């Protein structure tokens, strides 16, 4: 694809399986008013069982095949040197996969997921009628392996992105259970609405847990527990972190970022350096 080109995608007619759930979940294929209010207030909301089991199974199968092939581009735990990671690719566990990059190009099933009517409808509610998926950011499968997974420090997704406005939404699909034991996310509710300057962050733009002034905010963090098919929507300025996987099973999550069409990437930035997908909402 040409750099900077926007490709139009139409949502696929994928049948959803709806399950009985508490009132804080998606009703039909849209966010309930309580969920919209939660996103505005806390910077995140969870749509339980939004992804049909059959689609989740096919996404997971495609993920396992790609990990088995070790097809580039891949980010290994050793590459980032986060706490708990092997010191190099040559060390034991050094080729433990942390992230499969460019997930959209790894199989049509990822397009099916991104254009699922329920996903698109929720994004329209959060961002407006025209939705764009930048392929430069996230567009990946995140993994947490036993033994060699690492800690991810507190950060905002917007830290390395360049757009007209810091108003993007991260969509996180759980391909299996996510708990504090296997490295699930922790979020700080309302942190997306707090004006933060450069001072509370380190050189890599992680929110410093060693600063006393940050401790009160970090103490408000909530752990998230997800089941297979659950979808987390969170604001790009919501502070979040994740621990290590101390279970015997690998955790897999699909992560894409979305913006409204009128929130353009800044020219010359990394955000403007890759194609984007314009996703049309499903017909009413």
Describe this structure in words.
There is one protein chain. This protein is of the alpha+beta class and 284 residues long. The chain has a single domain (32-87, 106-279), classed as Jelly Rolls, CATH 2.60.120. 20% of the residues lie in helices and 21% in strands. The chain contains six helices and 14 strands. Strands 1, 2, 3, 4, 5, 6, 8, 11, 13 and 14 form a ten-stranded mixed beta sheet that branches. Strands 7-12-9-10 form a four-stranded antiparallel beta sheet, with no helix packed on it. The radius of gyration is 18 Å and the shape is globular.
Task: Tell me the series of helices and strands, N- to C-terminal.
Answer: EHEHEHEHHEEEEEHEEEEE
Any idea what the CATH superfamily is called?
A: q2cbj1_9rhob like domain
Q: What number of structural domains do the residues give?
A: 1
The largest pleated sheet is described as: 10 strands, mixed
Strand content: 15-25%
What shape does the CA trace take? globular
Radius of gyration, whole Å: 18 Å
The helix/strand class is: alpha+beta
Query: How many angstroms does the end-to-end distance come to?
Result: 31 Å
Please tally the helical runs, counting DSSP H or I stretches of 4 or more residues. Answer: 6
CATH class: Mainly Beta
Number of strands: 14
Mean pLDDT equals 89
Estimate percent helicity: 10-25%
Runs in which pLDDT lies below 50 for 5 or more consecutive residues are 10-28
């Amino acid at each position: 694809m040409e750099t900077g080109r926007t490709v139009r995608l139409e949502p696929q007619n994928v049948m959803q399986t709806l399950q009985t759930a508490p009132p804080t979940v998606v009703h039909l294929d849209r966010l309930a008013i309580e969920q919209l209010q939660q996103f505005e207030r806390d910077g995140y909301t969870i749509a339980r069982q939004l992804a049909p089991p059959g689609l989740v199974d096919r996404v997971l199968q495609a993920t396992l095949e790609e990990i088995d092939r070790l097809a580039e581009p891949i980010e290994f735990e050793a590459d980032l040197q986060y706490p708990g990671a092997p010191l190099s690719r040559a060390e034991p566990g050094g080729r433990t996969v942390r992230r499969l990059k460019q997930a959209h190009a790894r199989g049509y099933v990822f397009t099916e997921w991104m254009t699922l009517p329920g996903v698109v409808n929720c994004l329209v509610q959060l961002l407006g009628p025209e939705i764009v998926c930048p392929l430069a950011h996230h567009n990946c499968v995140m993994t947490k392996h036993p033994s060699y997974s690492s800690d991810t420090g507190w950060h905002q997704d917007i830290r390395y992105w360049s757009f007209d406005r810091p108003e993007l939404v991260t969509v996180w699909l759980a391909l299996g259970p996510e708990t504090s034991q296997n490295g699930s996310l922790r979020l700080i509710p309302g942190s997306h609405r707090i004006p933060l300057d450069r001072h509370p962050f380190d050189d890599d733009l992680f929110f410093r847990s060693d600063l006393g002034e940050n401790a009160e905010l970090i103490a408000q963090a909530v752990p998230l527990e997800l089941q297979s098919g659950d979808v987390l929507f969170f604001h790009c300025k919501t502070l979040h972190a994740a621990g290590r996987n101390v279970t015997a099973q690998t955790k897999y999550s699909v992560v894409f970022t979305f913006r409204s069409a009128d929130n353009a990437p800044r020219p010359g930035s990394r955000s403007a350096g890759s194609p984007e997908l314009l996703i049309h909402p499903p017909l009413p």
